[in-house]
Amino acid sequence: MMRRSKMFCSIYKWKISQAMDSRKPTSGKVQKHISKCDSCREYAELCTSLKPRFIQDKQSTLENFDETLNKKIMSAIPELLEFDSESGRKASWQKYPFRRPVLIPSLAAAFTVLVISISIIFLALPRSKQVPSLGQISTLVSAASPEGILSKVESPLEKEYTELKRTLESTSKFLISSFDLRIGQQAK
Amino acid sequence: MEKILAVKHLSDEELASKVATGSRSSFEELVSRYSSRLFYFLRHRFKTEQDTEDLIQETFLKAFRNIDRFNPERKFSTWLYTIAIRQAISRFRSEKKRSTSLDPSPSPPNPQDIVIQKEESQNIWYLASELGKKQYEALWLHYGEDMPIKDMARILNKTPITVRVLLHRARLNLGKRMDPSIASGKLTGATTAAHKFSFL
Fold first, then answer.
1. Structural domain boundaries, residue B119
2. B78 and B147 in one domain?
3. What's the CATH code of the domain at B72?
4. Which residues in chain A (119-178) have CB-CB distances under 8 A to chain B?
5. Where are the alpha helices (DSSP H) in chain B?
6. Is residue B193 within 8 Å of residue A60, measured between CB atoms?
7. Residue B163 predicted with pLDDT over 70
8. pLDDT in tens, A109-128
9. 3-state DSSP assignment of residue A115
10. At what angle do helices B149-156 and B160-177 cross, to 10 degrees?
11. Which residue of B has its CA nearest to A79?
12. B123 and A54: CB-CB below 8 Å?
């Protein structure tokens, strides 16, 4: 039971914090709980008392600040103040509509549509006579008959085959002449 | 002299616009308005006061160089605090790379320091500084600068809900750390905060 109430308290404390941050009054339910719960009441009181206390102590803290730092900062500035004149430079946010290059969705979409439409037009347009179309290229390729060209090219295997054939023919001629063989005729 | 008096009445954003057109006195006024605030905001991030001062100097130089990028329709404090915290982060990273383990061990505090520390402990910002970097910064921006959650989230580079949670935890922890007299609002020595903070 104790644990449960603690859990509820943490929720109510969060709600009190939320109300503080949004600068709105706490809801009736929270106020009802605050009236019953000491811990949450203390927290609510603390929250309301924090702001004036922080402001008060900030003033006293800042009053004791050593001003020599300001002089140090300003001593580093004059070298950079080359433009220190009444004419001065104009701030870039005044000069340009966009201070940094930003991707604007509408412009990006328009650019994409433009690129796509140009490419479609380019593809769809009939080509001039000087530039061959895809069909013309295919007929030229077929006319070239790659098989014929290939047949003219002697492969190393074929070369070896003809060489061997030649050797065999000369060997047979030699043998015929040496032994006086008359194939298909009667020897004298 | 007239120039200085004239700039005193201007808002931060108006001063920044004037700096963009080359007004030195306007920049001086901005420095005097923000240097102390930035000092106490960043103090706990560094070991020495010198480091903090160096960083503030760098922050103002950067702000000055880029003043033409500042849009006066937005809040100057948010812009400056964002620069400061980014400078602090990049400096911390570069120092982390260079740092060695040869840091001398901290010397024991002398009695005078102990007295000062006791006086300082009455100041609520001193208590806040003990909560840790994130919670302290959230409290400073919210209570010290009266910034809305949205701007705080931008400066701290967090989501608005994370900032709300940070603030909530900071309040809870402050409540635990406060002694009963402070917690009940009977502050006695809070305004007599010591000469200077030595937050950590």
1. 110-200
2. no
3. 1.10.1740.10
4. none
5. 2-8, 12-20, 24-42, 49-65, 76-98, 111-120, 124-129, 133-139, 149-156, 160-177, 180-183
6. yes
7. yes
8. 999 999 999 999 888 877 66
9. helix
10. 100
11. B61
12. no
Q: Are residues B87 and B169 in the same domain?
A: no
Residues B123 and B126: their CA atoms lie apart, in Å, by: 5
Q: Quote the CA–CA distance of B8 and B30 in Å, as a whole number.
A: 9
Q: Which two tokens stand for residue A122?
A: 């380019």
Contact assignment for B183 to A55 by CB distance below 8 Å: no
Q: Average the pLDDT over A63-77 and give the result.
A: 83
A7-24 tens-digit pLDDT: 788 888 998 998 888 888
Domain boundary pick from B76, B103, B130:
B103
Residues B93, B137, single domain; the answer is no
In chain A, % of residues over pLDDT 90:
8
User: Are B64 and A80 an interchain contact pair (Cβ–Cβ within 8 Å)?
Assistant: yes
Å between A117 CA and nearest CA of chain B: 38
Residues B23 and B83 placed together within one structural domain of the fold: yes
